[in-house]
Amino acid sequence: MRALWFWAVALALVLAQTLAAQARPESFADLAQKVSPAVVNITTSTVVAANTDTLPMVPEGSPFEDFFREFRDRNGGEDQPRRTSALGSGFVISEDGFIVTNNHVIESADEIIIEFYEGGELKAEVIGTDPKTDIALLKVTADGPLPFVSFGDSDTARVGDWVMAMGNPLGQGFSVSAGIVSARNRALSGTYDDYIQTDAAINRGNSGGPLFNMSGEVVGVNTAILSPNGGSIGIGFSMASNVVTRVVEQLKEFGETRRGWLGVRIQDVTEDVAEAIGLEQARGALVTDVPEGPAMDGGMKSGDVILSFDGKDVEDTRGLVRRVGNAEVGKAVRVVVFRDGKTTTLKVTLGRREEAEGTVPAAQTQDAEDPAPVERDVLGLTLSEMSDELRQQLDLKPEANGLVVRDVDPESEAYEKGLRGGDVITEAGQQSLATVEDFETRIEDAKEAGRKSLLLLVRRSGEPRFVALSLDDE
Question: Which positions make up the signal peptide (predicted)?
């Protein structure tokens, strides 16, 4: 019996090893040979202004000061503009010469030279750029059709799938590296980030190059690495092709991006916020402010939770931002919101984000430091009722209302959740506040309704956010 068990285990191990060997490619040579002609090296040059402060730091009046000045003058001086070069990668996406790369590769370049794998160089022009996704679209004019590669569906890339990166690492010329998809849906710092993380070696100079799946389709554009020393340590990031393709289509058609704009400020719904408003599940995007724009015109209000946008569920703010950005400008969409314990469907006609950006002036922060007419400690907060003097000190509009946070107990939950002196609480329990008595009434109402927490709308430097504070210790 033991012998049969032994042979069964041995057979299982052999089968597992066989399956693993079948999944692992013996070589990437055929794939590399197939796609290499469409991968390009990019050299850019930029004229930089003269540096008038080129002398080493030496004591004023020192003989070394004259020595270094004479040395500089003998070598032609440093008072003339000079040209600098940079290297990157890219790939051809059409036979008529459209090329994709990173925006940071060609940004501010005066001249862009494309070097092809099979030899030859061509000058490129910039068709359009998108700094938000770090994508640029270039165009070259060739004597004949160029070899090109196609985009694949990045959503089908699974963690553990084999991928291959190509480019011009550290200026060493065309190079191939292979690895696997290490993670999906990574966010770095951009609004529309959707990065594929890979351990395929990516170094400086690889920026803008393609990340291929095993079918030879581009599933990502190599953009960034995480490294303590500037070299690859196996943590590289490629912008997902499903983000890139939409950007490229718009750059090709318009020379710029045209993203949808809803016109709201939002934050994620946490467990305590969901409990405070009676939402069964912590999901969706909580609307903190509705300035003039499409959402206001469609009837959206501060405190609404967006649960569905254009027929698709909204899990969090990041997902909503990407979905709105991908929507067509001018499209009328249905938005399902949670309001006053029930769902409501709104119809919103989207604007264009690029036109709306920069329309809200940046507010200034000032410290509150005056005695208020009425002051009281509630939920770890020292609150004052609004006055003209406070409005002036906090640089608020004359019509601004609410309660001013004078101080916060450092051992309180309010402090842990980021409330600080100078904040203005404009709503509690999704109702406006004018007096401290209003605030205390909202607390009692929440307790009578069986709530464990109270939802506050807090503004700092004009920017709103919701905070839920526990009522257990009140």
Answer: 1-23
Q: By residue range, what is the domain housing residue 339?
A: 260-356
Catalytic residues: 104, 134, 207
Comparing C-alpha atoms, which of 394, 377, 380, 356 is closest to residue 436?
377
Answer yes or no: is 209 a known binding residue.
Answer: no
Whether 408 contacts 384, CB under 8 Å: no
Q: Rounded CA gap, 100 and 124, in Å?
A: 11
Could you tell me the CATH number of the domain that includes residue 299? 2.30.42.10
Q: Do residue 200 and residue 265 come from a single domain? A: no
Q: Give pLDDT tens digits for 337-380.
A: 999 899 999 999 999 988 887 543 333 333 333 333 578 888 88
Residue 205 half-sphere exposure toward CB, CA atoms < 13 A: 19
Would you state the torsion angle of the CA atoms of residues 359, 365, 366, 368, taken in this order, to the nearest 10 degrees? 110
Same-domain check for residues 264 and 250: no
Q: What pLDDT, in 10s, does the model give residues 263-314?
A: 998 998 989 889 988 999 999 999 988 989 999 999 999 999 999 999 999 9
134 is an annotated ligand-binding site residue: yes
- Indicate the SS3 state at residue 270: coil
Residue 201's CATH number: 2.40.10.10
Cβ atoms within 10 Å of 246's Cβ, excluding its own: 18
Establish if 16 belongs to a structural domain: no
- Tell how far CA 167 is from the center of its chain: 24
**Residue 206 annotated as part of some ligand binding site:** yes
> Rounded distance, CA 199 to CA 236, Å?
6
Domain-terminating residue out of 254, 270, 293: 254
- Cα distances (angstroms) measured from residue 421 to each of 161, 425, 457: 50, 11, 15
Same domain, 231 and 321: no
